[in-house]
Amino acid sequence: MQIIKTRIKQLSKDYLAEIIGYRRELHRHPELSMQEYNTSRFVISKLTEMGVGHICSVAGTGVMAMIEGKNPHKTTIALRADMDALPINELNEVEYKSQHPGVMHACGHDVHTASLLGTTKILYSLKEEFEGTIKLFFQPSEEKYPGGATMMIGEGVMENPHPVHVFGQHVLPDLEAGKIGIKSGQYMASTDEIHLVVKGKGGHAANPWKNIDPVLIAAHILIALQQIVSRNANPEIPTVLSFGRIIGDGQTNIIPDEVILAGTIRTFDENWRKEVHQRITRIAKSIAEGMGGYCDVDIHHGYPFLYNDPDLANEVRSWAVKYLGEENVTDLPFRMTAEDFSYFAREVPSCFYRLGTANAERGITSGLHTATFDVDESALMTGMGIMAWFAVNALMQTKK
Length: 400
Description:
Layout lengths: L1 H27 L8 H14 L2 E6 L3 E7 L7 E7 L26 H17 L7 E7 L8 H7 L10 E12 L3 E3 L2 E4 L3 E8 L3 E2 L9 H12 L1 H6 L7 E8 L6 E2 L2 E9 L3 H21 L3 E7 L5 E3 L1 H15 L4 E3 L10 H6 L2 E9 L20 H19 L3
Parallel strand pairs: 3-4, 3-5, 5-16, 6-15
Antiparallel strand pairs: 1-2, 2-4, 6-16, 7-14, 8-12, 8-13, 9-11, 10-12
Helix pairs in contact: 1-3, 1-10, 2-3, 3-10, 5-7, 8-10
């Protein structure tokens, strides 16, 4: 394994400039969820140039391919990268700035895609050094429900052959480039969308007694719903209930007929998740009706919480230490953000880890989903190398 590790590290260095070029090309041309047509064509073209086989389109704009080592039927693992961008207008003044106003790779999926292409290039060079098959999942639409992972699974990517593990990687601007982070067990929260329409009776704001004010009703509902977390949630189960959208399209002297509220509920327990849905519905409807109005409640059931198989996560951590050194491997806390990689993790024991991309000295510290997000591109060397290292170790230590 020492020889393979040395070769992976050398290949990561050799390919870095090329993979940075891939990342910059993807960053210049971001595409929103389920619109990743050019991204998909780019990925297919690069896989074809490498000589990778079994390339096929899946889930609309997704791509799957396979690298077969010696004795390819021995065992199979899968590596996943997501490809979609966000509806954000980039403010960075860099040579590779998004050329599509209002669309930006503000969550690092350009890094994920380029890094997996780098990993693919490394593994294809080493295919005579390992046994088994590596599936490559280039996934569309992680950012938009229902998510590309469940679509890919529905179209059979987990079959013929069936991978015993899936590995996924995501950038983390809280961690310096050259480092990775891992958490065993529950890691990222489930996510559901809450849509409320509070209905009343609009009219002149100077005659409130003639109206049923949905703005006031909505305010009472918002305040009351906060008790679900502050008074009903078990503190041992991390829970977030937040609203980010309120539309009451009246005027200073006009009470509207309705108010629209939209928010999210995130947690780590499926029974509690179901109970929260029931509490939201009961509280919102009862308050609205008690004040003379009505509330339509629509809760979109989103991604489940992400669970890293403890045994596999512990193995991944030990492999990471051997590759990067103990000082470059971090234990991560819970995250209330969500990931549709969770669907892969429900199929087989899987591990989703974080790639450090920050460089404080260069001012590269902006958070995910911000207009100034960027990465220290040296992280691509770590990203492609560590995933290749994980893949080889997983194949060598997994029995069919």
